[in-house]
Amino acid sequence: MDLYQVRYFLTIAETGTFSRAAERLYLSQPSLSAGIKKLEQELGVALFERGGRRTVLTAAGQAFKERATVIMAQYQAALHELKGFNDRPTLKVGVLSTLRVSELADLVHSFQQHYSHVTLELYDHPADALQDKLTQGEIDVAITVLGPQDDAQTSTLLFAQPLLLAVPARHPLAQRTSVRLAELDGQPYIDRVNCEFFKQECQLLEAKKICPQVVYRASHEEWVISLVKAGLGLSVMPFWRGLTDIVYLPVVDIDFQRRVGIKWRLQCSEMVEQFCRFATSHNWESMAGGD
Fold first, then answer.
1. Residue 205: which residues within 8 A CB-CB, separation 6 or more?
2. Per residue in 142-174, is it b (16+ CB within 10 Å) or e — as a string?
3. Domain HTH lysR-type, which positions (predicted)?
4. Of 203, 204, 198, which Cα lies nearest the Cα of 218?
5. Which of 6, 23, 41, 216 has its CB surrounded by the most CB atoms within 10 Å?
6. Tens digit of pLDDT for each residue in 69-106?
7. From 1.10.10.350, 1.10.1470.10, 3.40.50.300, 1.10.10.10, which CATH number describes the 3-86 domain?
8. CA–CA separation, 266 vs 234, rounded Å?
9. On the CB side of 99, how many CA atoms lie within 13 Å of its CA?
C-alpha cells in the first residue's frame, strides 16, 4: 500500500465520486480508478460500491476510512516535525577527551533547558585535534586547554586544575602528604595517552630512569578514574572534586597545571556567542583545582 493510494481513497470518500476526486487530484479518472483497484486488491476487500450518482463506501471501506485518516494525519505530523529540523540551529561543540563526561552533561542539560530550540552535537577529541577542527570549521566552539598563545578575543578561561598523583584509597601511598617522582618506579601505572602533558611526563620519567609498570593506556578520563578506584594502578591526572576511593597527592618534583577554557573563531554566530556566555557563567566548582 502506497501513500498516494490512501490519498486517492480519502479524496473519493470526501467528494463522493471518482470524477470529482480526479479533478481535485489533477488526475485522469482511469489513473485514479487503477490506483483504487490496486489498493483493493492488496487489501483483499472492495472499498466502494460502484454505480449510481455517488460512490458509497462499503462496510470495509468505512472501517478503512478511520485507519486511512490516521495514516494521513501521522504523515502530515511527521512532515511538520521534520521540516522543523531545518529551522533548528545546530551547534557543534568539541570537548576535550580528558574532561569528565558527567560534568559536561550538566552544562549541556542546563544549556538546553534555556535554549531548547538549539540542537547540540558533541565531539570529543584530544587538544590538537580540537584546534584543527575548530580552525577548519568542523566544530563551532571547543572546550579545551588554553595556552599562552591563545587570543583573549577568541578564548576565555573556565577553570584551572593541578595535575596530582591519584592513588587508590587503600594504597600505602595514600597515607602520605606528598610523593616524589622516583617513587613511581615499579608501581602499577595508568597512562593517560591524551593528556596534554603526556609527552613531557614521559620525557621526565625517561630522563630520571624511572620506570612505572604501565598496566593500561587510557584515552578517556572516566576509564582512568574507574581503574584507579578499583586499585589497579596510579596515575598523574587532574584533580576532580567529590571523588571517593581516590586520594590525590602532590608530586614535589613536577608542577603540572592546566587551564581549561572555551575557544571560538573570530567570526562567529550569535548562537556561538550565547553558548560561550553560558559556559562562562556555568558553575565549574567541581572541576576547578584543589584547595
1. 181, 184, 211, 212
2. bbbbbeeebeeebbbebbbbebbbbbbeebebe
3. 1-58
4. 198
5. 6
6. 988 888 888 877 666 555 678 899 999 999 988 878 88
7. 1.10.10.10
8. 41
9. 32
